[in-house]
Specification:
Elements: E1 3-12, E2 20-28, E3 33-37, H1 44-58, H2 66-75, H3 83-104, H4 108-111, E4 120-125, H5 134-146, E5 151-154, H6 164-182, E6 187-191, H7 198-208, E7 215-217, H8 225-234, E8 239-241, H9 247-256, E9 262-263, H10 272-285, E10 289-290, H11 298-310, E11 317-320, H12 324-330, E12 337-338, E13 341-342
Parallel strand pairs: 4-11, 5-6, 6-7, 7-8, 8-9, 9-10
Antiparallel strand pairs: 1-2, 2-3, 4-13, 12-13
Helix pairs in contact: 1-3, 2-3, 3-10, 5-6, 9-10
Amino acid sequence: MRITDLRVFRMAAPTGGSTNWMFVRIETDEGIHGIGEASLQYKDDALEAELLDFRKFLIGKDPFRIDHIWTSLYRRVTWTGGAVTISAISAIDLALWDIKGKALGVPVYELVGGESHDRIRIYANGWFGGADAPESYAEKAAAAVADGYTAIKLYPFSGTQGARQDRLSRGTAVVKAVRDAVGPDIEIAIDIRGRMNMWSARRVAQRLEPYDLAWLEEPVMFDNVDAIAQLAREVNVPVATGEQLYTRWEFRALLEQNAVGIIQPDICHAGGMSELRKIAAMAETYYVMVVPHNSNGPISTVASLHLDMSIPNSYLQEVFVNWLPVYGEALTNPLVIEDGHCRPPDGPGWGTDIDEAALAKYPPVAYTPVESEPYLQF
């Protein structure tokens, strides 16, 4: 079997703004194709150019030589790494695993070790749409729990810069209202999105300590591992990070600090199935759990579930539950979430494909530059 083509296609993501989901389809001379995802917010054109450049290398290659292809793409350019290059490699890697699974007639998770779990527990993101006060957050959180989710995440400190002290009080009030609404047994994660400095992050952690958080996500930026580790040791709230780290080499520095208990690599950005399994194995030696980041499209979600099924230290899987209807349209074999748990779709490879005809309802949108938010200081 040989690779004959690589094609890129996009659809508008249901996120608002100028975000698209990007997919890769790799064809072979035996009529078997594989699907990967390369969604990288606001960098569509650069990413597509990188994928089409890699296409020149891939034509004629044996798609079963997945590790060889990964290493060749990673090492063949002078400027190794970076979000665009690694996301392109990730998408190609995912498509190659799909091809191999289809060719051998087995799900991807069987190829990479088989089931470590019977099913994967989902943590719900995106359930809070329209909430603008503690009371409305509480109401929507209770509804998510009623739908069967036992873990939820929210962003109580997001918004415009404005009155900082009021924002700290308001965010804390939101978390308290959510905890009161869902009770003591539901896991609550808070995402800061790297928007705080150390001083502010400490204050927030102190305010939120009574609410028994599952984790405080990216309280400070990802690019200073020493600072993240210092903060994680200082506060009494678990700290999670990793969605903006790429490859085993960047995660090595974080793990060697032995300060965080949860890492969040993204299967579309950190190196695909091949690389995330290696990152997960490294994490296991430090007794660190893996909770894959997933703010991407449907193939990212499906591939993450295959990863989760195959590694012993997966804990939860992020899903934007408000996007599930669009996932259902885009996938030929949709996801089924029952009692807050999910398995990959049944079938070889990913067990599903992208319905390209259905994507016509969501034509890609042009990028509109956005202004970066400064650090939040409380």
